[in-house]
Amino acid sequence: MTSPSLSFVQLRSGYEAPSTAPLSLSLTAGDHLVLKGASGSGKTSLLKVICGLQAPQNGEIHWQDTPINTANLAWWRSQFCYLPQDPVMGADTVIDVLHLPWTLKASSRELPSESQCRHVLDQVNLSHPLNKEVDTLSGGEKQRLAIARAVLLERPIWLMDEPTSALDADSRDNVMALLEAMNVIRVSISHDQVWVGSASYQFSFGANNE
User: Fold this and answer.
1) CB neighbour list of residue 150: distance below 8 Å, 6 or more residues apart
2) What was the pLDDT predicted at 5?
3) In the predicted model, is pLDDT for residue 207 greater than 80?
């Protein structure tokens, strides 16, 4: 059976420099596309277009041979995990953060058990108890906690904005290995040369004159 593909067809957000070509590419399970370029060059805007958070200037996104539009945005958003640069906790304790998508009824999967939560924390090298207050965590720990929550969602696509910006090299390498093992489609923004170098594809943004 052919793996479902995520396709971008002449996609532009409208915030790129004129010298930046539109994005046209198809990704399947295990592929990783990195969007790279200087700050202000339009990377985050294009990622938001892919997330359905803003409309494209032109072009299309297709998932499983279905074009994404306003009529099926809810379905599309149920297909991916979105990790913004500043991790969203949304709750006071570690377990409540992990359970947040279920609290918000954003997932139809069965609520993860405490043992499943502990296992996913182990996967990202977090040893805190489930009742640990999130306010006491470092920036890197919050970033790893957001990644752990995304793992629990078991979605086929991950969309990430600087997902390792607060991580040390060992934590970054562990996250890279974890995502490789999960065989998910990844689209990310990163300035980390190791992360960028590991990608299947790289898409460069030209300098914006604004």
Assistant:
1) 81, 83, 158
2) 96
3) no
Domains of the chain: 1-79+157-163+182-210 (3.40.50.300), 86-155 (no CATH)
Q: How far are the Cα atoms of 5, 60, 127, 171 from residue 174, in angstroms, in the given order?
A: 26, 33, 15, 5
Percent of the chain topping pLDDT 70: 97
Predicted structure pTM score? 0.95
157-169 pLDDT, tens digit per residue, is 999 999 999 999 9
Mean pLDDT of 90-113: 97
pLDDT at 3: 80
115 burial via Cβ count (<10 Å: 0-12, 13-18, 19+): exposed
The Cβ of residue 210 has, within 10 Å, a number of other Cβ atoms equal to 8
Q: E strands within 17-120?
A: 23-27, 32-36, 58-63, 66-67, 80-83
- Sheet with 201-204: list strands edge to edge: 80-83, 157-161, 185-189, 32-36, 201-204
Pairing of strands 66-67, 58-63: antiparallel
Q: In what order do the strands lie in the sheet with 58-63?
A: 23-27, 6-12, 58-63, 66-67
What is the average pLDDT score of the chain? 95
CA distance 194 to 128: 28
Residue carrying structure tokens 């998508």: 101
